[in-house]
């Protein structure tokens, strides 16, 4: 009986360890047992001590940073590029603006193809209680510039943020994320700050294969897909993989860098939480500049140095610098190894194997 008990505890521990490893393996803030393909890559986050039931006003001040350029994405890059007005909505768990694997609504199609909000606004309003707030920024003609977006409210019932920014010109391509939950399942508090790197999405409503292709509506439309670089990634990130909503870039290789091996981040979102109506610094009246994230932040493992891609095999010869991406890779490997050893030690100790 004692033997059986300890084996039971021991296997429970192994399951806990496995869940820990899965979280380490890339899913961000998903409830237990509910894995799905996420539409965002969270590069940095900070927890706050604001409980999920906080009754006062909570808003995120988000900044959109464009990173779509001829230097980073040289293939077929259009002559007159721009970003459509960025749009962010907050909503409940009972609402989806778009997902990375299903056909999009007519409103989302209209944003992705034309950058217009009219049809989408009706969908947003028709969702009633499920949607809370919708804000949008300005069209941006310098595609590597950044802009501050109007603050967006969240509540305990509406903690999810979804976003779209149309790539112009393009058949139906956009950047953004969907269903990001601003309350951590782990701490049950709001995130104080989040930094999301975006993928590139094809809304699946237009068959055009170049930025300036003539309108060619797909009938029936296909699911929304995320562009990926062929042959990239490890076994769990194969490209293409239609079951996971990943489709190869069009034949001209739009969005790939000049090495053709990866898609540099086309844009990122950084959001900071403001709590209530009070001061940020005691005794000083609130001023947005006190909490706005900076417009431009260098990303050593993603930004080009003197026009050289961090995925260029000759990075070090060409720039005379060590590749920040390589050292990030090493750091992550060490981190993963330390974590694995810790978990193993924990299991060994608890099961009394030694
Ligand atoms: C967002 O919060 C502000 C500040 O409390 C409030 O004035 C505004 O009405 C809210 N908007 C929505 C759509 O909830
Ligand atoms: C676009 O914006 C970036 C970042 O603010 C700036 O460095 C660059 O000079 C701008 N390009 C043009 C053509 O204005
Ligand atoms: C906010 O602070 C910035 C920088 O300190 C200042 O330039 C700006 O005028 C202030 N805005 C308001 C409305 O006080």
From TrEMBL:
Region (Disordered): 287-326
Pfam family, one: Spond_N
UniProt-listed PROSITE patterns: SPONDIN
Key words of the record: Membrane, Signal, Transmembrane, Transmembrane helix
Top-level taxon of origin: Eukaryota
Keyword Nucleus: no
Stretches that traverse the bilayer: 332-353
Stretch forming the signal peptide: 1-25
Keyword match Transmembrane helix: yes
GO biological process, one term: cell adhesion
Protein name listed in UniProt: Spondin domain-containing protein
Biological source species: Nitzschia inconspicua
